[in-house]
Amino acid sequence: MKSIKEETNLNNKKILLRLDLNVPLLGDKITDTTRIDKILPTLNFLISQNAKIIIISHVGRPKGKVINELSLKPICKDLEIKLSQNIKLISKDIKEIASMDLFNNNEKIVMLENIRFYPEEEKNNSQFAKQLASLADIYVNDAFSCSHRAHASIDEITNFLPCYSGLQLDLE
Question: Which of 14, 65, 98, 104 gives 20 to 30 Å between its CA and that of 54?
Fold first, then answer.
């Protein structure tokens, strides 16, 4: 797998970025931000390249059901502060998301709500992966601790987009 650092033209490209942001939460408070801090170089690199970033991640094991306590909302807020960027958290169904314009003139980063809220994710569903892929031009995996999983946003999606590793995955 090539590193995203090797891609020479990321200007205005939509990057589907799979991260592992499965951090411990106590209510809506993050108790350990280590995993978030480790992926900041990848996000900063993509921002510096003027890419449009679509973050995909998970928290916990909701087993395909929406569980409000496992929302990515606190993580989204933490990333906004650390990156000094607005990040829109999108909670809609993937079919609705595919027909949306995800970015306005000022937004460069959006985050999809917990990918494991979709039962198709852990089933490595090809149609679901194809819908995710339709959102972007390039796929970047920077979720080392999840990379062994046969999940749609890690495994099956690689059949539909050019794939690269992120900076943290390169380090691992």
Answer: 65
**H helix or E strand, kind and range, residue 129:** helix 126-133
Structure tokens at 1: 């797998």
Token pair recorded at residue 151: 């999940």
Q: pTM of the prediction?
A: 0.94
Distance, CA of 6 to CA of 164 (rounded, Å):
9
Neighbours of 77 (CB within 10 A): 14
Locus of tokens 């395909």: 64
**How many other C-beta atoms are found inside a 10 Å radius of the C-beta of residue 82?**
14
Helix (H, G, I), strand (E, B) or coil at 120: helix
- Cα–Cα distances in angstroms (integers) from residue 143 to residues 9, 11, 90, 98, in the given order: 23, 23, 20, 23
